[in-house]
Amino acid sequence: MSHRSTLYYSLSWLTRLLIVPIIVLSVTCSCIEEEKFSDNAYGNFQALWKILDEHYCFFSEKNIDWNAIREKYSRQVNEGMNYQQLFEVLTNMIGELRDGHVNLYTSFDMGRNWSWFEDYPINFSDTLYNKYMGKDYKIAAGLRYKTLDDNIGYIYYGSFNDSFGEGNLDEVLMELAPTRALILDIRNNAGGLLTNAEKLAARFTNKEVLVGYMRHKTGRGHNDFSSLKEQHIKPSKGVRWQKQVLLLTNRSVFSAANEFVKYMKCFPQVTIIGDQTGGGAGLPFSSELPNGWGVRFSACPMYDVNKQCTEQGIAPDHFVSLTQEDFLKDKDSIIEYARNLVP
Description:
Layout: H1 3-8, H2 11-18, H3 41-55, H4 66-74, H5 83-95, E1 103-105, E2 110-111, H6 115-118, H7 126-133, E3 138-140, E4 143-147, E5 153-157, H8 166-176, E6 182-185, H9 194-201, E7 209-214, E8 229-233, E9 245-249, H10 256-264, E10 270-274, E11 282-288, E12 294-303, E13 318-319, H11 324-328, H12 333-340
Parallel strand pairs: 5-6, 6-9, 9-10, 10-13
Antiparallel strand pairs: 1-2, 1-12, 3-4, 4-5, 7-8, 7-12, 11-12
Helix pairs in contact: 9-10
């Protein structure tokens, strides 16, 4: 077996494991067909630059000069470099996009830019979470829930990749129905299936609501997009929550979770508390370089109800951070702030 095949023989199953779409819509997103490039350092560089040049969707929003970036990084590519050195150059280049949905997948590493949460306070503590949940909480699929001692319902949902059924939601909301209000905590939820976000949001409205818009690429130019397509949330046929909702967020709320916050902002009984979300408002597509490395990138931009792009995150109604003083008292500053908003 050759050196190259030894290095990449497991890439197909690895990319299936790693390239899980963070946002899934009710459309089929196939891989993009690209022109042929040579399987050498410069050919792979050219292929990556061109894939993003023709299909990435946030150049204008981020004021990125992609031609200048090509000039910058092409000078760092030479045919004497090994795969690890090429990977470093390509990862640094895609990092210029400042996008958590842009990744480079190999058998030895994943190229990424996670500045959307790594450059900010965490505003979540596993220690405090365990204090509040105790040992008597209940679990319904991906939802963990209980009634706090002041008769406020609390649900923690850590990933929209964790699916739940309509029956799970009925049981959880019926269990918490006697409480005064609901704290819905999605801090550290980095996304998953958009269908789960839509299904959960549908429990908080009694009528169909316009919650935003999306577009898709129609050509290879940076600004070749379709017209805006409306996004709506229809009320669930199951149990719907009628009382106050306090939605807790931090910078690690990303992608489908970011979309969920966008939906919930449209419902009058919902108040968002914590830190700005991490963003991730582009539906990701995938492609491949000549050497077999996988590429993922944002291709379809999404917008809030005011037609503003949410790629950079969504601001809460109340900015609240965890404090050291509260931590030493075993108190979560964000949860306590939410509790104090309940009449």
